[in-house]
Each structure stands twice: as structure tokens, then as C-alpha cells.
Amino acid sequence: MTILMVILLIVLVLLGLPIFAALMAAAMIGLHHSGIDFSAIPIEIFRLANSPVLLAIPLFTFAGYLLGEGRTSARLVRFSRSIFGWLPGGLGVVALVSCSFFTAITGATGVTIIALGGLLLPALLSEKYGERFSLGLMTSSGSLGLHFPPSLPIILYGFVSGASIERLFMAGLLPGTLMVGVLCLFSVFMGKKWKLERPAFSWSEFIAALRDAAWEIPVPFLIVAAIYSGFATATETAALTVVYVFLVKTVVFRELKLTADMPRIMIESMKMVGAIMIVLGAALGFTNYLVDAFVPMKVLDFMKGMVESRTGFLLMLNIFLLAVGCMMDIFSAILVVVPLIVPLAEKFQVDPVHLGVIFLANLGIGYNTPPVGLNLFIASSRFERPIVTLYKATLPFLLLLLLTLLIITYWPPLSLFLPSLLN
Asked: What is the spatial distance between Cα 64 and Cα 66, in angstroms, rounded to a whole number?
């Protein structure tokens, strides 16, 4: 009977069963097979509801949606251009920096491609950047910024794994900068190769752009300062961020109306939060079964027969996570996969904070990995180009990101140096 139920569940998943329903059904099948009462599931959901850390997720999500409205993206692009526009390939650098910043504060890669793509792709093409290069750059840049505060995936990973969110924020800074920096160098190289026109640096434009974006640029820095100075916890910082962004958008810029815009934005942001929470509740129930059934230990015993070294484990982990990143959104992947790999990483002596950085790097790259990376389909729809064109366009960027992934994976001090300063 159990085997038939599992087969039926797999068929339903292939037919489009929502992931939360699949996880809940899998948990119930597993608990029934193990003879454990179903009350284990609501107990885990109750524990979730009482976790103070998770309050930061809806608050940061709401702040990100507020920043996604109005002309924030245009102001950030203008400011980035005033700094980097004079470089060879400077507009490409502007696109990469702007997109990574925007992804960090909104927490969603698809939103970045949709919001900034219509602004930056025509600008790149008009300044004689190659179409394939421009498409690849805009698609790849959508997954940058996941390592920077106030990244929602970092908060969620910290909750699920038990790792310190503050240490994770610090750990992601250098690896995230490396990923952005390598692609920026590629843009500069191509700019020199194509001998593109370079506008001279203008102090007057820099000051004007800085003044224009002066209220929004400090957001990530204020978040980091509040958390690491001890002024506020991550949850309190999230609440303060909402208040700050709300006042900036409604009072300073007057881009949002209380009655016309705020209810719509609240509903949209809470839809995303609700989707995360319902999957998280189901995933915790499923994790409860996996722990009771000693599944992580069985997987560990299996891997020990195949992998005997920490290096081999990390290599297999990268391959596995890239495949996961292709097929699942980052929130679902964190909820489903992290409980499985954390015990394995402990056995191979991988620091949980370093593991979190590796995890996010893999999933971000997986978004751009053919054949089913999510960003490829979003960009294909947004830019109205065939998906095969996007495959070819992202390949150079994908190879460079894989190079940074190897550095991040096999050089732990890159991730652990800044957190060590907190000790």
C-alpha cells in the first residue's frame, strides 16, 4: 500500500501538484509507514509559528516590494552609472552592480530581471554592446546579490539550519563581491575589445545622482549597522526598515499613495510570504519524518561508500545543488534540501556558515543553468527571445560563475574571515 501511495504521489507531482501539498503528503505517508502519529506535523507548524526570527521575512519582503515600486530602480541605475560609466564596458558594470543591489533589497531574482531588464537592455544595445552579451549579462545578473543583506534566502537558511543569521550576513559579503567583480571584469574586457565609447567621469553628475538616490542607497548599510552594532535584532531591524522605506516612498518621494497603492503592495508581498510559510510548514513536517526515519544517516552511510574525503563531498554537493537550483525556486530548495545536507556537512567537517554561502552560490548559478534554469525562462519571456538564444548568451557568464563557485567552495577563509572578526 505504501509503495502504491508513493507512486501515486510521484505521478501527481509530475502532473503539477503544488510542492507544499507534495511535501505534506510525503510526510503523512512516511509517518504512517513508521507508525508515528500525525500530530508530529502540527507540532512542527506550531513551532514555526512561534519562532521570532521568522518575523523578519514578511517585514523585509514588504520593504523590498515597496522599494520595487516607483523610480527606485532608475535612481539606482543612474547612481551606478555616475560611478562606473567611464570604465570600458562601464554600462555592463552598472547593470551588474544595480541588479545585485536590487536583488539584495527585494530578495527575488525574477523581479530584478523584470524591473531592470526593460531599462538596462535597451541602454546596452543602444551603446553598441553585442545583443548576445547583453542578454547573457542581464539574465545572469538577476541571481547576483543573494549573498548581501538583507537577503531573504540567508534569513531562511539561518532559520532552517540553525546557523547564525548575523554571521551568514557577514560571510556572504566577500563571496558575493567576488561573483559580481568577476563578471564586471569580463564586461570591462569586452568593452576594451569592442572599443566602446566612454563618457568622462563627471563630478556634477555623480553629486546629482547621489542626491537623487541618497534615501535608498543607505538601506543595506543601515541594516548591517543596526544588527552588528547591537542596536537591534534582525527582526527589529526588519521592522525599522519597513518604517524607513515607507516614509521614503510616501513622504519624501511621494511615489506611493496610502489608499491607492499600499493595499495592493501589501497583498502582493503577503502572497509571496504566504507561499514561503505554507511550504515551510509542510517541509518541517516532512523533515520530522526524515529525522525519525534516520534518512540523513542512511544517506551519509551511502555517501561514505562513494566519497571518502571532504573535497569529494563538496564536489558532489556542488553538482547536486546546481541540479536542484535548476528545478526548484530558492526558497523551496532551502526548505527541502538544507535539513538533509546539514548533517552530512557536519560529518565532513564543513562549517555551517560556509555551507550556507556555498548553498546560495549554487542555487543562484542554478537559476542560469540550462536546460530549465528559472532565470532563463523569465528572461526569454521578458526580452521576447527564444530560450535557445538565452542558453547561448548566458554560457560565458555561467562558466565564470562556476569558476567563482570553485573558489568559494574550496577556499573557506573567503567566507569565514569576516565572521571570525565577530568572535
From this structure: 5
CA distance 362 to 402: 9
pLDDT tens, residue by residue, 190-207 = 998 888 878 888 999 999
Residue 361, pLDDT score: 93
Residue of 48, 61, 49 whose CA lies nearest to 238: 61
C-alpha cell belonging to residue 241: 526598515
Query: What residues contact 31, with CB distance under 8 A and at least 6 apart?
Result: 37, 38, 40, 41, 288, 289, 292
Tell me the CA distances in angstroms from 33 to 231, 289, 333, one per residue in order: 49, 10, 25
Query: 503592495: which residue's cell?
Result: 265
What does pLDDT average to over the chain?
Answer: 82
Q: How many CB atoms lie within 10 A of CB 368?
A: 27
96-117 per-residue burial string, b: 16 or more CB within 10 A, e: under 16: bbbbbbbbbbbbbbbbbbbbbb
Distance between CA atoms of residues 193 and 89, nearest Å: 9
**Could you tell me the pLDDT band of residue 415, with boundaries at 50, 70 and 90?**
very high
- 360 in Cβ contact with 178 (< 8 Å): no
The alpha carbons of the chain give a radius of gyration, in whole angstroms, of: 22
Q: What is the tens place of the pLDDT at every residue in 280-306?
A: 676 666 666 666 666 656 665 666 667
The set of cell numbers assigned to 58 is 514578511
**CB of 193 closer than 8 Å to CB of 81:** no
Instruction: Record the pTM.
Output: 0.80
Contact 125, 131 (CB under 8 A): yes
Helices 387-410 and 374-383 pack at an angle, to 10 degrees, of: 140
- Say how far apart CA 406 and CA 423 lie, in whole Å: 27
Res 132 pLDDT > 90: yes
- pLDDT for position 403: 95
What's the CA gap between 153 and 144, in Å, rounded?
12
**185-to-8, 121, 133 alpha-carbon distances in Å:** 50, 19, 14
At 211 the pLDDT is 94
User: Cα–Cα distance between 148 and 109 in angstroms, integer?
Assistant: 13
SS3 256: coil
224 phi and psi angles, rounded to 5 deg: -60, -45
CA distances from 159 to 111, 187, 335 (A): 24, 36, 10
